[in-house]
Each structure stands twice: as C-alpha cells, then as structure tokens.
From TrEMBL:
Protein name according to UniProt: Histidine kinase/HSP90-like ATPase domain-containing protein
Region (Disordered): 229-262
Domain of life: Eukaryota
Keyword terms of this UniProt record: ATP-binding, Chaperone, Nucleotide-binding, Signal
Organism: Fomitopsis schrenkii (Brown rot fungus)
C-alpha cells in the first residue's frame, strides 16, 4: 500500500535493454563484473566525499561489498549484491537507472544495432553495459538504495527501483522495509530459470576470480553455507581412562564402533573474503602471471582487448615519494586519438595512495600528448590521502612520475622493437605515427622516439633512420627524402624528382604522411647528417663528376643555348612558375616543377594554410 511511481524508460534505454536481453546470452557472465564495478565506484565516491564531508560516513561502518544468494519463497533463485557506498536518492535512482546519461552507452547502441551478435559481445566489453547487464540473468531487478547523509540531505529515505526484464517502465517507491541499509545500495536479482546456476557460490567465486577481483579495491565478501561432518566431543573422562589404563584397550575397541553414529552434519555459515590477495601492483612482478596482468588491465581500464605490453616497476627518486606502478600499452590506439591529437588526452592514470584510489585525472600535463594513450596505475606510499592537485604539484610528484613513466615506456618500446618482431609490427601499425609526433613534440626524448620511427623508401618497404645511414652510399652527406602528403609511396617512387638518385643507387625516404614532413623539418639532422628534400632546387648528391664550379659553367652554356625556349616557356607559364631553368637532375622525364630552394614545399604550404584556418 505504498504509493508506487511508474516511469517509462527513455527510448534509448528501452532499445538497449532489448539488445541486452535478446542477443547477449553467451556474454551474460558480465553482469557480476558490472555490478561489482558500480559498487566499487559508489564506495570510492563515498570515500572521496568523506574527506570534506565527514557525515557521509554515518549510518554504516565498513566500506565493503557483500554478495548473497538464496532461494525465495516462490522457489526462484536470488542474488543480492550490496554495497555501503554513496547510495542514491529517489531522483538519482530515476536519473541513473532510467536514462542513458553516458555517451559511451549511446555509442554502444549505435554500433550494436549495426553489427551482428558476435560483434555486440565485443562491444559490451569495450563500452561496458553497466547496470542493464543485470537483465541478462534476471527476470526482475530490485534496487534498494539509501543515500549517504550530507549537508543537503540530512534525513535520507531508502527507496526502491524495480523493473522487469520485459517491461517498458520501472517503478520507484519508498522501501516498505524502511531504512534497513544504513547506507548504500542493495541490488536483488530474481534469476531467470535458466540462470539459476548463478546461485552457486562456486560459480560466483570463479567469476569473481576470473573477471572481477580487480573490479574492486574494497573487500568483497560472499555468503557461504556448507555442510560439515563433525565428530561429537567424547566425554573427557573416557579419554583419560584410555590413556592411563592399557587393560581397557579391548573395551575401547567396542566403544569405538559405538562412536560412529556420534558424528553429525552441521551447517557452517560464513562470509568468505574473495579478493583477499594484495592488489597486483603491490606484488612482486615475478609472482604475477600474464593472465593476471591481462585481466587486471581489462577490468581496470574497461577494455575488451588484452593489452599489447606492460611494465611493472617501482619508482623511487631522491625527492621523497616512492611508488609502484604498472604501465600498459593498449592493443591499439583509440580511434579518437587522431581526431584531435593536440587536444586528445585520455589521461588514464589511476593514482592510488596506500592502495586507496584517489583520482584518474592528473591534469593535462601529466603526460605529453604523444604518450597520452598509455594506461597507468600508480600507488604512492608517502602522499596524504586527501592529497589535492596543488599538493601534488608542490611535491613535484607529478613531474617525477611523468619522467619515470616515460622512461619506462620508451624502454618498453625499444625492448619490443629489438626482441619481439611480431609484436613490433602490430605495435608500429597502430602507434607508428605517435612516435613521429613525439619526436617533434618531446624534444627531451626526441632521439629515442626517432629511433622508433619507420619510413618507406624507393628501395624497401621500410627503414629506420639508423638503417638508412648504414645503407648510405660512399660520400653521401645527406638523408634524401621526397614528401607529398596524401599520395602513395608507389606514386612517389615514380616521381621525376628521384629518377637520377634512384638510377645512381641512392635511397630516398618517401614521405606521404603530413607528420613525416613536419618530422624531418623539425629534426633537420639525424646523427649530424642533414635531411635533404629532393624536390628543392639546387640539390647536390655528393658524388657528382663535375665540381660545383664546372657544373655552373656547363649550366650557363646550356642556358644560353636554350635561351629562346626558356623565354618562350616562361611566357607561357609565367602565372604559375617563378622561373624556368635548365636542370641536370632528370634521367627520362623531360621536365619537373620544383619548389624554391628557400621556400616551403607544396606540402608544408598546404599544412600552414590549414593550421591558420
Ligand atoms: P556507469 O557505471 O558506466 O556510469 P552503469 O549503467 O553501470 O553505468 O550505472 C549507471 C549509474 O547508476 C552510475 O553512473 C551510478 O551513478 C549509478 N549506480 C549504479 N550502481 C550504483 C551503486 N551500487 N551505488 C550508487 N550508484 C550506482
Ligand atoms: Mg558501471
């Protein structure tokens, strides 16, 4: 007889629930991970709020998550997941569970509706379906929640959100049980008949071990009941007799067979702490398996794919703050990265202090843009728990962290380049351009980053700058390149600008990416050897038969001889070119249009005008 408010789901939610319920059967295990991760978020929010508002802690003691499964009076299986986190007011229940606030989920929807079912499975991991994954296993879900006390809400009331798997609406009403929770949220899943297996503590334990032990930094307890056979205590004096009088031995044998029925079955009930291992970043790297790193990464950074590589290390510098960290390279660069490389900064650095999560946003400068995609967990020993952005800056912790993370990342990349050719190919495909950006942007690490860069040439599919230098011809004093963004290397390889160089056996870098040209213009030299644009006038190879003076003389003679033709050509093309000259660089082509020696090349001009727009 409590008034129940009925709400229709936002249309997006209705669509999402339909996808969830219809097409994700084989992925339904994820519900537990999602609910645990929500509970963990709520606990983290509570703890962070408590730093400035103590009263939020009242109502319930420990910060933890509990899971209990049982059969209800209708014989349906129920799984109850409860946390002592921040909780939700009735308005929040409506807003958070009845609408899709997250942009990620809408993206999920858009993509899920355009892919087949197997694709959708991957999407769940990528976006996280969150709360709605409950309907993968439940016919009905009750969310009972009591918001934490705060200055704005000093007398919160416990409310229930309830919805069935195939209902287009949900209900919100005051909990008929009253404020039973003390604080936090309790989610009751009334299991579908074909999902009854999730009542089994072994299955829950397995799932938590496999997928969710990293989803929470707070303790997760599971309610267990097991039957145990215990032998009933024998009366004490009987034992004494046994020990003291050997003549009683025969008698004892007789009593022994009498004792057998004295064992009995009792039910032992207890809360089992499931995620009792220390977090993996605190463990000795030698004791952590690859699988553990992988599932830790997947759970922590909500990535369906396994990481490509990682490094686990301690940072300990003179300035006082010691920390443990793991850096991860995602399987590929996020598709958003290049949409706005200069602004893009994923900043997925999860900072903990003494194992307590503090923030995942350390600000724009935490890492340079080229490295903003790297995923980091870091746990600092000596920072205060209520550390603020300002404190972080004043301890120079951020600077120190940045340089140590970059040092380890660069070493990891170099190690892959050197020792893991297959992984290197995958890595380079996704991150190759990031290294070029880095070599331009991060002058401190320029050399190490440039060593990771690869370029196509007229002689081979790709080369590093190091290999290019090894392949130099005798007397060659420049690194030749030809740049034209937007074309293909095949096209460039046929360019008139490299005819002569190619014929003479010189290697020329063929640059087709806008970043390539910015790269060579910024570096200017590699190991003292200058880059030379072969499209610029005045090019010298270094092995010419004539001296520059002789060449000039020859050029002068030819120019005089062909003066009428040159004058006529200049008249015809005067609007387009600055000058028409005799060239010695062509082998089979009859003419070429080249950039002025001092001027920008066509490519850079295009980019300059684009960047001013
Ligand atoms: P996400 O966690 O990615 O935001 P979910 O669908 O998992 O998406 O959850 C939606 C929202 O519901 C959360 O952002 C949070 O505000 C709220 N929520 C879910 N579970 C809880 C909980 N146990 N305690 C408090 N709030 C919760
Ligand atoms: Mg969630």
């Amino acid at each position: 007889n409590v008034p129940k408010q009925k709400h229709d789901y936002q249309s997006d939610v209705a669509r999402l629930r339909k996808i969830v319920i219809n097409s994700l059967y084989s992925h339904r295990d994820v519900f537990l991970r999602e609910l645990i991760s929500n509970a963990n978020d709520a606990l983290e929010k509570l703890r962070l709020t408590s730093l400035t508002e103590k009263e939020v802690l009242s109502g319930a003691g420990d910060l933890n998550i509990t899971i209990k499964a049982y059969k209800d009076e209708d014989g349906k299986g129920r799984v109850v997941i409860r946390d002592t986190g921040i909780g939700m007011s009735p308005e929040e229940l409506t807003a958070n569970l009845g609408t899709l606030a997250k942009s990620g989920t809408s993206e999920f929807l858009a993509r899920a509706e355009s892919t087949d079912t197997t694709g959708t499975g991957n999407l769940i991991g990528a976006f996280g379906l969150g709360f709605y994954s409950s309907f993968l296993v439940a016919d009905r879900v009750y969310v009972s929640s009591l918001a934490a006390k705060s200055s704005r809400n000093s007398e919160p009331t416990q409310y229930v959100f309830s919805s069935g798997a195939d209902e287009s609406s949900f209900e919100i009403y005051p909990d008929p049980q009253g404020n039973t929770l003390g604080r936090g949220t309790e989610i009751t899943l009334v299991l579908k008949d074909d999902a009854i297996e999730y009542m089994d503590p072994h299955i829950i334990t397995d799932l938590v071990d496999k997928h969710s032990s990293f989803a929470s930094t707070f303790p997760i307890y599971l309610w267990t009941e097991r039957k145990e056979t215990v032998t009933e205590e024998e009366p004490a004096e009987e034992k004494v007799t046994d020990d003291t009088d050997e003549d009683e031995a025969v008698v004892e044998d007789v009593t022994e067979s009498d004792k057998t029925p004295k064992t009995k079955e009792v039910t032992v009930e207890e809360w089992i702490h499931m995620n009792s291992q220390p977090p993996i970043w605190m463990r000795d790297p030698k004791t952590v398996s690859d699988e553990e790193y992988e599932s830790f990464y997947q759970a922590t950074f909500k990535d369906y794919e396994k990481p490509l590589a990682w490094d686990h290390f301690s940072g300990d510098s003179g300035s006082g703050v010691s920390f443990k960290a793991i850096i991860f390279i995602p399987s590929e660069l996020s598709s958003e990265y290049w949409q706005n490389p200069l602004q893009s900064n994923a900043r997925d650095i999860r900072l903990m202090v003494k194992r307590v999560f503090i923030t995942s946003d350390l600000g724009e400068d935490a890492l340079p843009k080229w490295a903003s995609w790297v995923k980091v967990v870091v746990d600092a020993e000596d920072l205060p728990l209520n550390v603020s952005r300002e404190t972080l800056q004043s301890t120079r912790f951020l600077k120190q962290l940045r340089s140590i993370v970059l040092k380890h990342l660069l070493a990891l990349l170099a190690r892959i380049q050197e020792k893991e050719p297959e992984k290197w190919v995958t890595l380079h495909k996704s991150y190759g351009n990031v290294f070029k950006l880095g070599a331009v942007e991060d002058t401190k690490n320029r050399v190490k980053l440039a060593e990771l860069c690869r370029f196509a040439t007229n002689q081979r599919k790709e080369t590093s700058l190091e290999e290019y230098l090894e392949n130099r011809k005798k007397g060659q004093k420049q690194i030749f390149y030809l740049a034209d963004m937007g074309t293909t290397t095949e096209h460039l390889a046929k360019s008139v600008f490299i005819e002569k160089l190619h014929a003479r056996g010189y290697e020329v870098l063929l640059l087709t990416d806008p970043l390539d040209e910015i790269f060579v213009q910024n570096l200017r030299l590699w190991k003292t050897v200058p880059f030379q644009d072969v499209a610029k006038a005045g090019l010298r190879f270094g092995d010419e038969e004539m001296s520059p003076e002789e060449e000039k003389e020859e050029q002068k003679k030819l120019t005089e001889q062909y003066q009428p033709l040159l004058t006529w050509l200049k008249e015809q093309a005067g609007d387009i070119v600055r000058d028409v000259v005799i060239s010695n660089r062509l082998v089979t082509s009859s003419c070429a249009i080249v950039a002025d020696m001092m001027g920008y090349t066509a490519n850079v001009e295009k980019m300059m005008s684009a960047s001013q727009a």
